């Protein structure tokens, strides 16, 4: 991938791409949407739950609603290979969009809006070049910048020199009810896309899905990415992480195998607005394997203690067994064993930390807090690295090793590097 740009300081920014595929274990030949449809339509007793604002849907309800949205995307002319970006949308809306896009072969882009969020939005528009965007009203960073307002500033600035190229600007439910979002003429509500989808027949959707498969044989083997996450990498520099549908399907495949041995569990995972790829992967895994997912509220506050209090209260209330969240929050939780006295966390068996090179001391603290905790990966390159062996069972000589890439991980890492112009 060749993506370059320059700034007024005389430096040149270049995105460099690396690629990793582990073929040490057999790959599933099943298609991504087959996993989702088969699993979701039979799982009336497994749920996706958003804590705040509260929303709960069975997997079947969730999948059915996502397919209405998929039909709405078809109605506005979106097709396989198009790209959809999400800016500051939180709750169920962006996750339903994720599944709708995956079903149609539309590339989906999530993001972590670290401050200044205008810079992140600009990078995504200029380098991802989305056909459509979903805009929400979340705030981020110490300055509590409003995503919708920053998005407007960015596209106005880009439009001074050239068209921004976005065909469809769609706002979510929260933005629709927020007067600070200043919805512009020509934008469409997500509700209106659902209304269009209700008018489209299931036959049209089925034909669109079949066309996706016919165009690419079994489209889970297409190397072109179908999901993207902009995140703050382990080095502190922005990264673009590209996942393709094969990665999603194999995560589902191996999740099903694990569930046959250990049974269903309840995952607690950060909101998609928190960034990186955790919720994307957990969503696919839970839907395809019949696990419950509880999505913690997006932390729209610079107050870490308030955020951690909200996380632990939800963990107690929903009896979460495996918590996956931002590294900084998991570290603070593991460093304070008194939380186990303040909250009833008997159900919590594992803290999973990702994007972080853990010290032996931190690993021991993780294991002390929850015995089956896992050091998820050592840096973004090692997504869901080591096999899920609890830290508490690792031999001493292994406790400070960087995780090896997990089986069937396929992803691309695009690092942003700054070089002096020649």
Describe the structure in your own words.
- The chain is an alpha/beta fold and 422 residues long.
- It folds into 2 domains: 3-20 and 59-232, Rossmann fold (3-Layer(aba) Sandwich), CATH 3.40.50; 245-407, Rossmann fold (3-Layer(aba) Sandwich).
- 37% of the residues lie in helices and 21% in strands.
- It is built from 14 helices and 19 strands.
- The protein has helices at 32-40, 59-75, 92-104, 117-128, 147-159, 173-176, 190-198, 202-215, 245-262, 278-289, 304-317, 327-334, 339-342, 360-369, and strands at 3-6, 11-21, 47-50, 55-58, 83-87, 107-111, 132-135, 139-140, 145-146, 168-171, 188-189, 227-232, 238-243, 266-269, 292-295, 322-325, 350-353, 374-375, 410-420.
- It has a 10-stranded mixed beta sheet with strand order 1-2-19-13-12-6-5-7-10-11, with helices on both faces. The protein has a 7-stranded mixed beta sheet with strand order 4-3-15-14-16-17-18, with helices on both faces. A two-stranded antiparallel ribbon has the order 8-9.
- Strand 10 (168-171), helix 6 and strand 11 (188-189) form a beta-alpha-beta unit.
- Helix 2 (59-75) packs across helix 3 and helix 2 crosses helix 8 (202-215).
- The radius of gyration is 21 Å and the shape is globular.
- The two termini are 21 Å apart.
- The model is unreliable at 1-23, 216-227, 229-237, 377-389 and 398-422 (pLDDT under 50).
- This is FadD.
- It comes from Bugula neritina (Brown bryozoan).
- Residues 42-416 form the AMP-dependent synthetase/ligase domain.
């Amino acid at each position: 991938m060749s993506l370059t740009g320059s700034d007024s300081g005389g430096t040149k920014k270049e995105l460099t791409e690396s690629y990793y595929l582990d073929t040490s274990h057999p790959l599933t030949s099943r298609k991504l949407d087959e996993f989702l449809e088969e699993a979701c339509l039979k799982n009336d007793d497994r749920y996706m739950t958003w804590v705040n604002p509260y929303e709960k849907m069975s997997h079947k309800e969730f999948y059915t609603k996502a397919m209405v949205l998929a039909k709405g995307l078809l109605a506005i002319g979106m097709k396989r290979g198009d790209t959809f970006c999400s800016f500051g949308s939180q709750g169920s809306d962006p996750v339903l969009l994720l599944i709708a896009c995956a079903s149609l072969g539309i590339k989906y882009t999530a993001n972590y809006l670290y401050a200044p969020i205008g810079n992140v939005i600009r990078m995504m528009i200029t380098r991802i070049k989305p056909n459509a965007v979903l805009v929400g009203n979340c705030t981020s960073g110490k300055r509590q910048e409003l995503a919708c307002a920053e998005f407007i500033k960015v596209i106005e600035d880009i439009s001074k020199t050239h068209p921004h190229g976005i065909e469809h600007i769609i706002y979510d439910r929260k933005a629709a009810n927020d007067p600070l979002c200043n919805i512009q003429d020509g934008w469409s509500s997500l509700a209106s896309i659902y209304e269009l989808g209700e008018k489209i027949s299931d036959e049209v959707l089925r034909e669109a899905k079949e066309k996706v498969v016919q165009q690419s044989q079994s489209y889970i083997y297409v190397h072109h990415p179908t999901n993207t996450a902009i995140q703050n990498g382990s080095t502190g520099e922005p990264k673009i992480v590209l996942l393709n549908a094969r990665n999603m399907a194999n995560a589902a495949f191996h999740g099903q195998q694990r569930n046959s041995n250990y049974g269903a569990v309840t995952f607690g995972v950060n909101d998609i607005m928190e960034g990186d790829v955790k919720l994307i992967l957990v969503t696919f895994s839970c839907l395809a394997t019949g696990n419950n997912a509880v999505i913690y509220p997006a932390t729209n506050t610079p107050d870490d203690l308030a955020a951690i209090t909200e996380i632990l209260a939800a963990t107690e209330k929903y009896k979460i067994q495996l918590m996956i969240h931002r590294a900084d929050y998991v570290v603070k939780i593991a460093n304070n064993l008194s939380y186990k006295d303040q909250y009833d966390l008997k159900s919590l068996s594992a803290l999973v930390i990702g994007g972080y090179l853990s010290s032996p001391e931190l690993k021991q603290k993780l294991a002390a807090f929850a015995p089956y905790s896992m050091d998820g990966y050592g840096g973004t390159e090692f997504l869901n690295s080591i096999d899920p062996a609890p830290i508490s069972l690792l031999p001493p000589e292994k406790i400070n090793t960087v995780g090896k890439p997990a089986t069937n991980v396929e992803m691309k890492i695009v690092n942003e590097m700054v070089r002096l112009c020649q």
